[in-house]
Amino acid sequence: MSDVSSDDECPDLIPVPVRPEVNDEPACKIPVTIITGFLGAGKTTLLNYILTEQHEKKIAVILNEFGAGSAVEQSMSIGQSGELYEEWLELRNGCLCCSVKDNGVQAIENLMKKRGKFDYILLETTGLADPGPIASIFWLDDELGSEIYLDGIITVIDAKFGLQHIKEEKPEGILNEAVR
Predict the structure, then answer these.
(1) Class of the 33-179 domain?
(2) Contact between residue 37 and residue 43 where contact means Cβ atoms under 8 Å apart
(3) pLDDT in tens, 54-85
(4) Where are the domains of the chain?
């Protein structure tokens, strides 16, 4: 007999300890997409389109705008067949990025208490918000990070005036918000 085994022979099996099940994080966490852009760029229009499309997803929305809210924003809380979107949360206490830990995290934590009623979270920022500090909540809050993950940041740009805003010259010392 030779020590070399032939291709027809089955090799001896070696017992291997079973690894604990590895969590596929995106599969067990709720994805969050931040929608940002200047006032009037079309964020709410995009959000309305997403909510009214037939995609079999249950989407929770966190809307952060100053003021009482426009008729378009208010109409987004009612579906085409008249049902209310139960997961509709509006933050009226100012800019989300100005008080991320207080308002933003609290709104998402409150929403996560209803986990199972939605598959996805869309967070629309005010037109004045910088999405950077908002996105940082996904790394700064360990408890929240165990339930959600940042799926992406969508920046909506006004196609008609976007280039004009980018090229706009500002006085010395004034930051052009369109290019930061």
Answers:
(1) alpha beta
(2) yes
(3) 777 788 888 765 444 444 444 444 455 544 34
(4) 33-179
d(CA 34, CA 117) in angstroms, rounded, equals 20
Residue of 82, 133, 77, 86 whose CA lies nearest to 111: 86
Which residues, other chains included, contact 19 with Cβ-Cβ below 8 Å and sequence gap of 6+? Answer: none
How far from the centroid of its chain's Cα atoms is residue 100's Cα? 14
Query: How much is the pTM?
Result: 0.63
Radius of gyration, CA atoms only, the chain: 23
